[in-house]
Amino acid sequence: MSRRRQVYEGKAKILFEGPEPGTLVQYFKDDATAFNAKKKGIITGKGVLNNRISEYLMTRLEEIGIPTHFIRRLNMREQLVREVEIIPIEVVIRNVAAGSFSERFGVPEGQALPRSVVEYYYKNDQLGDPMVSEEHITAFGWATTQDLDDIMALALRINDFLYGLFLGVGVKLVDFKIEFGRLWNEEEMRIVLADEISPDCARLWDIKTNEKMDKDRFRRDLGKVEEAYQEVARRLGIFPEGGPRDLKGPATMQ
Ligand code: TMP
């Protein structure tokens, strides 16, 4: 029944060959994992919402000149993206202490940081995504110093823009993780934002109550997980018109 070739399956998404060379179809699953897949679950409707949220944020970022892999949303769970060579670095940008930062440095969750902090992690599940420095990245050849200059500049611009965008809808962008890829055009290479931006890979807190509206609700068994993803979409003004009944999306993904 499979109509197209699967290129890659990750924990939350599947990549299929796209309709034209140099394109891929990115399919968003409802599967959720945490703690390097030691914890597994399903967040009903997450794939549909993350597809929309990522579409929305990548489109807004393109409008301010950030290059991304995003081309267009195809349907409830799929978007067309440019095929890029993923740089195996998870770039985390933090505005407020939380999660592993709080644990590592003994800073209470919720404490604002004096300035945004950018961290790099080596994308490798077997090793548990260890934190790495620029030295590790260049020594292992995962990226060059020039690549890292571009990545740092893009990450800070993305953070400044998204921080303001979320603030405008009553959400504090505590931290988030992004990935970049290399896009080749003849001999020329450009670094572009890839993967996704969604409540799976960001911490989003209500500005007034600090209530968590992201995957920490799943990681920490806080309940109301689906509702949190829905609320983020609602605040961004992109909650599917049909309401929660529309969130299941098509049963098949082929
Ligand atoms: P951390 O505090 O656990 O290091 O997470 C920092 C941010 O990165 C947070 O917004 C969640 C996101 N993140 C991912 O997207 N994938 C991961 O595997 C981890 C550990 C964190």
What's a quick, concise take on this entry?
This protein is of the alpha+beta class and 254 residues long. It is 28% helix and 32% strand.
Any overview of this molecule?
With 254 residues, this protein is α+β, with helices and mostly antiparallel strands. The chain has two domains: 4-83 and 225-247, Phosphorylase Kinase, domain 1, CATH 3.30.200.20; 85-206, D-amino Acid Aminotransferase, Chain A, domain 1, CATH 3.30.470.20. Helix content is 28%, strand content 32%. The protein is built from six helices and 14 strands. It has helices at 46-63, 99-105, 134-139, 145-167, 216-219, 225-236, and strands spanning 6-9, 13-17, 23-28, 31-34, 39-42, 70-73, 78-82, 85-86, 89-96, 112-122, 131-132, 171-185, 188-194, 202-206. Strands 8, 9, 10, 11, 12, 13 and 14 form a seven-stranded antiparallel sheet that branches. Strand 10 and strand 11 form a beta hairpin. Helix 1 (46-63) packs parallel to helix 6 (225-236). The longest helix is centred in the middle third of the chain and has 23 residues, at 145-167. The protein is globular, with a radius of gyration of 18 Å. The protein starts with 5 loop residues before the first strand and ends in an 18-residue tail after the last helix. Bound molecules: thymidine-5'-phosphate. Thymidine-5'-phosphate (TMP) binds next to helix 2, strand 12 and strand 14.
